[in-house]
Amino acid sequence: MTGMPKVAVIGAGVLGLTALKNLLEEGFDATAFDKNDYVGGLWRFTEDGDTTSATENTQWNSCSQMSCYTDFPFPPGTPDFPTLAQIQSYLEGYCKAFSLGPHIKLRHTVKHVTRQDDMWSLEYVDMMGAQHEERFDKVIMAVGQTGKRVLPLGISGLENFKGRVLHGQSFKRAADFKDKNVLVLGSSNIAMDCAVDLCGHAKKIYLSHRHGGVIIPRYYEGAPAEFSISLRMQALGRVVGNIAPSRWAMMFNRKCLAISNDSFGSLPRDWRFNILPEGQMCNPIINDKIIDMLRKGQVSVVQTMRSVLKSGEIELVSEEVLSDVDTIILCTGYKYDYSLLPGYASPIRDSNRQWEACPASSGRPLPKLYQGIFSLDYPDSLAFLGVSGYPSSQMPLNDLIAMAIAQIWKGAYDLPSRAEMESEVDSRHRWLIEMATRDGPSILPGRVKVGPWMQWLHKAAGTGVNDNLGYGWRGWLFWLKCRSFCQSLMNGINSPHLWRLFEGRRRKWAGAKEALIRVNEDAKSRPRSTPLPVK
């Protein structure tokens, strides 16, 4: 590694591990730092109410076949939707397979990152409490998407509530709320999981939300619901999305709604679910049990909170008053934590007043990052994972982003000029603000236009996907030489192993073709069942 840049990766969760792995295989002298004594971040249960973690009975919402790292499938026998213990074991196996352990400093808490003499200085505390300062050429921030809690805006008098108020981050065990009357605020996956977990423990459960999403089950017609959108359909969607983004959003939303209606039947309008957002792709809520619990009255849908009265009662926007609630759980999400960086290096140092004035911004800052990844001030040495993306599994997506970062920083792919990067940021911000002004669900500041963004990532990473599955000469050559395999790819599921299949700048995985054949044969072998019965 002599002569290669020294890189610090801050975080050893799902994002930091793949960043470290991709940097090491390209020859960088990379080290990851994490405050925990384990890898995997939130995918390991902890009792600490100030640390985000999945609950002990968490089951993944995305299937293992489409949510693994690009060159590391889940072990044979893993269920379609792994448990928390299986995810943690998988991440530990990833570290062992690629010898990441010697390059990870656990129980090392980074306190500050500053710029000194054209290098980055990390101040951190080790497991013994000793303070250190170490210089690095480059830094990847991989602290995750759950750095800071987002609290609800526009709810007055919360201090009047006489019971317990907690953020979803502090929800660890449903048994802690035995015989309580609980109001769960939000309509995210976390909110639904929280409401489901509380059944059988809490006396009464209210689900309070402003804009519900489309609810779909994990399985649809005998297979993971994700299998119903083939690679060909996604490729078509990206073409349509480039030309008419609203049109593709409508097509995607209708597909999700069809899956929901086939699985659960039509839902009462006063539940306010399955309402499609105008002009943008929905972020489906994945839950198998919540609809049945709503129909049985085990969970009650109410309007969103307006205020807490001086009496301690909860007033809803419908003017209904709830007088029996003794616990409020705020499942209102998170925002990225940039606090390790000084103001001159922070991508949120310049506030965007237009964005902040939009109710759908929900108090989340709008970062100025090229492609949602690279610092505009230090693009050759400061990058961020977990800031930007779209509704998708974080493992393969950030694996691809890390490939792109590694290729750019090793000089194999050039970034554009500062003016061009600023133009990309300004254009994306205008698009986000336009969406956020509409009445609808929260707009995450890292949202991207999926088609062009993914094309750029594949080009920067050098995966060969754009060329070999496109309509240029290389695409036609691949089709002529491997017609049967090509057809199975396009009509099959969008497995992330595809991103390691072709020759390119990033490292190819020799097992990619075999893994793709295996996963598509498994998908074809699934018995196609009838929709779930509606009770």
- Average pLDDT reading: 92
Total count of strands:
24
- Helix-strand category: alpha/beta
Strand content: 15-25%
What is the 3D form? Answer: globular
Largest sheet, order of strands side by side?
3-2-1-7-24
The radius of gyration is 23 Å
Helical fraction equals 25-40%
Distance from N terminus to C terminus (CA atoms, Å) equals: 62 Å
Molecular structure report:
The protein has helices spanning 14-25, 84-97, 189-198, 231-243, 245-264, 290-296, 353-356, 394-409, 418-436, 450-461, 465-468, 473-481, 483-491, 512-525, and strands spanning 6-10, 29-34, 104-106, 109-116, 119-125, 131-136, 138-141, 148-149, 164-167, 181-185, 204-208, 215-216, 219-220, 223-224, 285-286, 300-302, 305-308, 314-316, 321-322, 327-330, 334-335, 369-370, 374-375, 382-384. It is of the alpha/beta class. The strands form eight sheets. A five-stranded parallel sheet has the order 3-2-1-7-24, covered by helices on one side. The protein has a five-stranded parallel sheet with strand order 9-20-10-11-16, with helices on one face. It has a three-stranded antiparallel sheet with strand order 4-5-6, with no helix packed on it. β18 (314-316) and β19 form a beta hairpin. It is globular. The N and C termini lie far apart (62 Å). Mean pLDDT is 92; it is low at 529-535.
Annotate the secondary structure layout.
Blueprint: E1 6-10, H1 14-25, E2 29-34, H2 84-97, E3 104-106, E4 109-116, E5 119-125, E6 131-136, E7 138-141, E8 148-149, E9 164-167, E10 181-185, H3 189-198, E11 204-208, E12 215-216, E13 219-220, E14 223-224, H4 231-243, H5 245-264, E15 285-286, H6 290-296, E16 300-302, E17 305-308, E18 314-316, E19 321-322, E20 327-330, E21 334-335, H7 353-356, E22 369-370, E23 374-375, E24 382-384, H8 394-409, H9 418-436, H10 450-461, H11 465-468, H12 473-481, H13 483-491, H14 512-525
Parallel strand pairs: 1-2, 1-7, 2-3, 7-24, 9-20, 10-11, 10-20, 11-16, 12-15
Antiparallel strand pairs: 4-5, 5-6, 8-21, 13-14, 17-18, 18-19, 22-23
Helix pairs in contact: 1-8, 4-5, 8-10, 12-13
